[in-house]
Amino acid sequence: MPDKEQDSKWMQAAIELAARGLGRAAPNPMVGCVLVRNGERVAAGWHNACGEAHAEAMALAEAGENARGTTAYVSLEPCCHHGRTPPCSDALIKAGVRRVVVANADPFEKVGGRGLEQLAEAGIEVTTGVLEAEARTLNRAYFKRIETGLPWVIAKWAMTLDGRIATEQGDSKWISCPSSREIVHRIRGYVDAVVVGIGTALADDPMLNHRLEEPPPRIASRIVIDSRARLPVDSRLVKSATRSPVIICCGPDAARDKMNRLIDSGVEVLQAELEDSNERIMWLLRELGQRDMTRLLVEGGGQLLGAFNDLRQIDEVHSFIGPRLIGGRAAVAPVKGEGSSLIADGTSFDIRHVERIEQDVYLWGIVNHRSAGIRNGPTDR
Fold this sequence. Notes:
By secondary structure, the protein is an alpha/beta fold. About 30% of the residues lie in helices and about 20% in strands. A 9-stranded mixed beta sheet has the order 10-9-8-7-11-6-12-14-13, with helices on both faces. It is elongated.
């Protein structure tokens, strides 16, 4: 009879190992594996980077012959197809693993439960659903992209106690403290892209890059929603486009000469022949999903964040509240757009973390709902 307490203990260990792949494993999921015999850890592994060994293969390589007769705790269903690496289900069977405990089935169309079926058909005892919610939360971005074709959208802003991100004159430096800004740089280091609107790009001339000493797990593309291709070629984004990708999303009214100047400067220009700005955002999200982008960080401004909110495409929020009041009828709010007429219709979040950072309050939460979208997005797992 399986010991539920032991199963939870070792699955938690597998999930913690999986988290080491944040920013590196994408577009593949983060996966951890622990091999256990008689309540003792034999070996462990995690998927460190796309194209490298999967968690199960890493653990089996460490265990060698000692893998025979063990229980494998895996945070996601073992793959059963040839991708960049061989099938993990075959490797577990060949190694003589006695039992496999899995948190989540993999929704990827080339797996979709067939890995579990293959293990069971080989006579391996299979248990599923152990710490299922915790493992799904870890791979929330992967699940959204596979199930809808759209990236997971993280919204970030720093605001004052009265809920403003800038004064009426546009001054916003600095609402949050240096330690809070370091957290933002760490987030930039594991997402696929950082997105701003053209208003923010023109007002702040940002770099939108990771600027901490340690190298980031990932180099994010910098994306500007710029309907008329107004981003200056002498902006810091354009000047650095040959070192780190810059993408401009334009509408049908963008002038060809302006787009060409950006292209000649090394910027990728995507033009959506859609008049409605919100439709262009959805078009862009689908395009980025098809490019295997899993996580986007949207940093503003208020109109852009409002558009994502109106579209129900904000999945996660990181908010930094600075100990200031600025007042003013025209001071800038973090989220504009059409908004909700009823409190009950507003976007609802589960707050997962609240922390005091110097004099700031930092909180992050995950949305309670998910918008529908196209299914069966790409992956290379």
